[in-house]
Amino acid sequence: MRAAVVSKGEFQVEDLPAPVAGPGQALISVTRCGICGSDLHARVHCDELADLAAATGYDHFMRSDQRIVMGHEFTGEIAEYGPGTRRRWKPGTPVVAMPILRNGRGPELTGLSAHAPGGYAEQVLVQEPMTFAVPNGLSPDHAALTEPMAVAWHAVRRSRIAKGQTAFVIGCGPIGLAVITMLKAAGVHTVVASDFSPRRRELADRCGADVVVDPTTEAPWAATPKQPRITGAADLLNLAFDAMERLRRIPTIPWWYLFRAAHTLNRGPAGPVVFECVGVPGIIDQILTAAPPLTRVVVVGVCMQQDNFHPARAINKEIELRFVFGYDPGEFRDTLHMIADGKVDPSPLITGTVGLDGIDTAFTTLASPEHHAKILIDPRSDRTAP
């Protein structure tokens, strides 16, 4: 099969032996594979990423001196099965799969490990239990976005955002755009998106953002049509005074019972939810400095450098800081069906398609935010530019 192999940061399209499905695995013929932001990082910073992965318990992340077939946002058609499989679908059935293989008890990240070649190829191996049939005749272009949209759905779910809370999305690259799309699918009434790039602001609007902000001219916190009631520490203290004055007027119910009920139900004043989708040093501290009290900050962007922030700022405003990563099988399946059922439209993210011979050009193009968001690879296309 033909595949794009990267080594020491350079891509080369080569003819490789066709993969052979092992126990519990299936072989699929790739129809589309997306280029992820993490692929852009891994191409040139994989040794640093490998060190970070090893520190958290995963020792098989790709290294620069290895020969790697990247690509973990893929869809394709069932070609054949390995031993010990249930053969759930007929050959030719369109499927998507979570990008992870398992040899014995050892997991391998597809497209990011030398032991699990990815979807920048004509064929890729998948684990049968982690594979899902594509429903409703969903196009390969849209099915391929199941993986990145599942990342966004996980972030939105973990944020525990209520429909009436304001969401701020800081950074409108592919993951920020996916978060905007999923927030609107979840019914969040007000989504404020912020990015320096005019092109990304345009795409944020197409993805459903209610307010789109250029941070060089306006702070996102000032752009929301629903201004927060609590903007500083004084407001928090006055809220306590006002609550006690009202509760003391109720003679028959001890006021502390009402506080206990609110604590048990987790009810009380709440700020907005901020999704940090930039992933560069300094952004978290900027958010902690500018965000109103009681904000929940969900860190989705992957910062590869050491970062610093001032904890006292977050403490004084009682800001919650939450980090998210990946998704679970239920979220992956649900994302696929949300797309197939028309509840989520990922089409604004797709800005170009190339064949295997166009991958190097696509990576170079994606370094600039002004033209493309998500470029897909069609292994059977001869396109060399998106």
From TrEMBL:
It holds the Pfam family ADH_N. Keywords: Oxidoreductase. Signal peptide: none annotated. CDD domains: Zn_ADH8. One of its GO terms (molecular function) is oxidoreductase activity. Residues 4-377 form the Enoyl reductase (ER) domain. InterPro entries: ADH-like_C, ADH-like_N, ER, GroES-like_sf, NAD(P)-bd_dom_sf. Transmembrane segments: none annotated. This is Zinc-binding dehydrogenase.
